[in-house]
Specification:
Blueprint: H1 24-49, H2 53-93, H3 97-112, H4 115-125, H5 130-135, H6 139-142, H7 145-171, H8 174-182, H9 187-217, H10 229-240, H11 244-271
Helix pairs in contact: 2-3, 2-7, 2-10, 3-7, 4-7, 7-9, 8-9, 9-11, 10-11
């Protein structure tokens, strides 16, 4: 009898039967989803039952003003930080040890210390040098708590954006530089026309995360008397002692973050269309 005719040789190996019932991971997942849904329903029920129209209409304009202050603070600081991040990223990639050391020290300090401590250093520290700042005409700027927060936030996000930009530029293959050099293109033109467009695709998602972190981190400026969204929320709670004040703020922050997240997704989809063809 040949090997083909042997029953053992023609036997088909079948996969083991799937386990009966639900796996433990699925059961735990369903329980967690149920608990989250229950918490959401409870939160909505609380908001509906404790809804106070007179309180809402009384403090809604203040919340809108706080949202505008938050958006203005984050937007201006991110733009200034983006401008500052370019020379800092260039310094981090520089072959000059002095320039590279200064850029590294800047990034190390602002990424290694809390943003709240940096805001305190600017707000309270610069106030100790009022005569010197007044002599050079800068006290009119630093006397305003919003400007102090803007200054601290700009320096902080510049350090993070510099690292994002440096990593994105270094992710571009060296062959792009070599090809541009072989064509005789200047270095700045190579950066602007070849390297930056490719680096932007890599850096877009980290830039979006940094923007979202700045929005959530902006709540700390309420401690230095800036009436942003959290500052208005604290003021509202101090007058009403109603827990809804913080729930409103949390919902508004969530809406802002979700809007930014979808905007980043839309931009990423637009600039990466050529990669999906």
């Amino acid at each position: 009898m040949s090997a083909v005719d042997h029953p053992a040789a023609t036997e088909v190996l079948r996969p083991p039967p799937p386990p009966r019932g639900w796996p433990r991971e699925r059961v735990i997942g369903y329980i967690l989803v149920f608990l989250w849904a229950l918490a959401l329903v409870g939160l909505v029920a609380y908001l509906v039952s404790a809804w106070k129209p007179d309180m809402f209409w009384r403090y809604a304009p203040g919340y809108l003003s706080g949202v505008w202050v938050t958006i203005k603070l984050v937007a201006i600081s991110v733009v200034i930080g983006a401008l500052l991040s370019v020379p800092i990223a260039y310094g981090r990639m520089s072959r000059n040890p002095i320039i590279a050391s200064f850029a590294y020290a800047y990034v190390y300090f602002f990424r290694g210390t809390p943003l709240l401590a940096q805001a305190f250093l600017v707000y309270y520290g610069f106030g100790s040098f009022r005569p010197q700042l007044d002599a050079i005409g800068l006290w009119s700027f630093f006397r305003d708590a919003f400007n102090c927060a803007l200054f601290a936030f700009s320096l902080n996000t510049a350090a993070y954006q510099a690292e994002i930009l440096r990593g994105a530029i270094q992710s571009v293959p060296k062959g792009q530089w070599e090809g541009a050099e072989s064509l005789g293109l200047p270095r700045l033109l190579t950066l602007r026309k070849i390297i930056f467009p490719q680096a932007l695709i890599v850096a877009l998602r980290p830039y979006g995360n940094e923007l979202i972190l700045m929005v959530k981190g902006s709540a700390i400026v309420a401690i230095i008397t800036v009436y942003d969204l959290m500052g208005v929320t604290r003021l509202t709670y101090s007058r009403t002692f109603d827990f809804q004040a913080y729930l409103w703020a949390a919902i508004i922050y969530l809406l802002i973050v979700e809007t930014l997240r979808h905007a980043v997704d839309w931009v990423e989809e637009r600039i990466t269309r050529h990669l999906r063809r």
